[in-house]
Structure formats: structure tokens, C-alpha cells
Amino acid sequence: MGIRLPFVISATALIASTYGLTRFGYGLFVPAFSASFDLTPAATGTISSGSFLTYCIAAATAYRMAGAPRSTVLLAGGIAAAGSISVALSGSAMVLAVGMLIAGAGAGFASPALVVLVQEKIPSAAAVRAQAVVNSGTGFGVVIAGPLALVLTDQWRTAWWIIAAFNIAATTAVLITGQQFTAAPTRAVGHAACRLTDLKPLCLTAVAALLAGISSAAVWTFGRSLVIAEGQMGNVQATVFWICLGAAGIAGAFSGDLVTRWGLRTGWITTAALMGLATLLIGAWPSNVLAVFIGGAVFGGSYVALSGVLIAWATEAIPGHGAAATAALFITLALGQAMGALLIGALLELTSPLSAFAIAAASFPPVIHSTRPRRRDLQEVH
């Protein structure tokens, strides 16, 4: 990627801060939040659901701003930082909830903006791989969040001040490195005007993304608190579980290569099935360290790879509308997570963790569909 490497690193850092630290950091800190504000599983799920919904609103706004990706990047980092600061200052469950609602919106602005910038700044032959690398930032963020929570177990407010600083630094880096080179004039970027009718080829794919969101919400929102409360794991073991999840998520950087070799359908089916099996493994044996660590690693790697497949599918299915298509699929993924957080939160108060996680695992989408021929897959993107 030549002189573009600093930009790719900066963009990956922005995804790490807005997704891995800010958006998914909530699940990591649920035990601390619950202790401070006496949150029930239902309340925990409601806050998480609200954060996913604000993400959806932000993503929908972001694709309409795709012609100004630098401004959207500024919104992404600024809003994520503002939400993190609100969490750090929260003195009640209500203020915490508001902070998480704000923080969730930051990630919604990040992905569509970076899809456009990567398409503009990276040569087409390397764009799919670059998108996958940037998307794997979620895993890096989760890995960073783990030790942060472990060291600052009793000072979670300090942790969220640090998260706010990460967002500001990553945003600044993207804005600076993105100025160092310009797009080739022949490149077709993904921010042309887009109507709802243009998104029709993604309808069934969006249903699959919705189901994937419902399935993934169990681990992202309740995974760490489950292994502590039900599995009787110590704080260190529960944090190592989270780090395993994030470290494996970094492998999502290779999802572009996986899809190129296997095709979108096979890549999707494989990653979705692994995510469902990992969710079931964690829910079935929360006290078994080996099962939890393996489940976390499989879940993290498959989730990030699955979201990378969504980006590849969006840019392939609707050429010229990459930002809009990505935003549409990520919105449906987040809507599923919002539904899943509410559902699993309620189920955890009514039934056993195994039953709740089994229902989440069973909702994984076994197939993904496109109106385009199978074997064309990513060949047109390259």
C-alpha cells in the first residue's frame, strides 16, 4: 500500500476506538456498571439496545453525508469522545444510558465514511484487502479494552476518559494522513446519489445481517458478565476471555482474502455458523475456562470476518454506492443487535443462561443471498 500505510493504520485505529473500545466496551464494563448503578439484566440490555439504535440513526445519516467523508470522520470521533466523557462523568444509571446512546452513534458515522475514504485513497486492486484490514480494527480495540478494564477495575471512570482520548487521537490521525495523497481521477468511489430502490439487491442480505445482529448481541452485551456471574470466573479470567475475543477478531483482517478464495456465500455461511456455535459454547459452559476462551476466540474472529463479508458484499452488489450499501447492511446488523440485547436481557431474567444463549445461537443466518450470479462474487471488485 506504499505511502498509504499510515492512512490504513489510522483508519484501523478509528474503528478500534469507535467500535472495539467505545461501542463494544460497554459489554466489558457491564459488571462494573451493574455494581455502581445496580443494573438488572433487563436494564443492561435496554441500554445496549439504545446504543445500537443510535448507531443505526448515525449510520443512516452518514451515508447521506458520504460526499463529505472527512466531515463524517470528524463527527465519528467527536461524538464517540463526547459519549465516552459522558459515561466517565455519569452519576446515575440514566446519565450512563445517555452517555452510551451518544457513544454508540460515533461508530455509526465511522464505517460509511471510511468505506468512501478507502475507495478514494487505495488502488482498486488493494481496496478489498484494505477494507478488511480497517474493519479488523474492532478486534484491536477489544484487545486494548481488556487490559484497560483489568488495570482500572475500580476506576472505570478513568478508563472511559482514556477511551475518549483514543477517539480524539485516532480521528486526528485519519484527518492528517488522509491529506497526504489524493485519489486517482479514474477511481469510481461509493458516494454517488443513492435512492432506496437502488438498494433492492441487498434486501435478503439485509435479513441475514439482521439475524446475525440478534445472534451476536448475547456475547457482546452479556458475555463477560455471564462468565463472572454464572461461571464464577475471576476478573482476570473474564478479562482474558475478552482479550481472546478481540485478538481473534484481528484475524478478520484476512476476511478479504478468505472471500476472494471461497466466494461470498461460502465465506458468509462459514463465519455465521462459527459465530452461532461459539455463542452456544459460551452459554453452555460459562464455568469451563477452556470452553469460554475457545468460544470467545471463535466468536471474535468469526464476527469481524462476517462484518468484513458484509462490506465486500455491499460494494460488490451495488457498484458506485459503496457507502450507502455498507450503511444499509450495518444498520440492519445493529438493529438486530438492538433487538437481541432486549431479547436476551429479558430471557436471562426468565430462564437459564443456556436457554437464552441457545436461542441467540439458533438465530444465526445460514444463508446469504444476492440477485447477482454466484461465481461473479468479488471478481468484479478486483
Distance between the termini: 15 Å
Q: Sketch the major β-sheet.
A: none
DSSP summary: helix tally: 15
- DSSP strand count: 0
Which residues form runs of ≥5 with pLDDT under 50? 183-192, 370-382
Order of helices and strands: HHHHHHHHHHHHHHH
Q: How does the helix and strand content classify structurally?
A: mainly alpha
Helix content: over 70%
Return Rg in Å: 19 Å
The coarse silhouette is globular
Q: Provide mean pLDDT, rounded.
A: 82
Q: What is the beta-strand fraction? A: under 5%
Features:
single chain, 382 residues, mainly alpha, disordered C terminus
Structure description:
This protein is 77% helix and 0% strand. By secondary structure, the chain is an all-alpha fold. Helix 1 packs antiparallel against helix 5 (93-121) and helix 9 packs parallel to helix 12 (264-284). The chain is globular and about 50 Å long. The protein starts with a helix and ends in a 20-residue tail after the last helix.
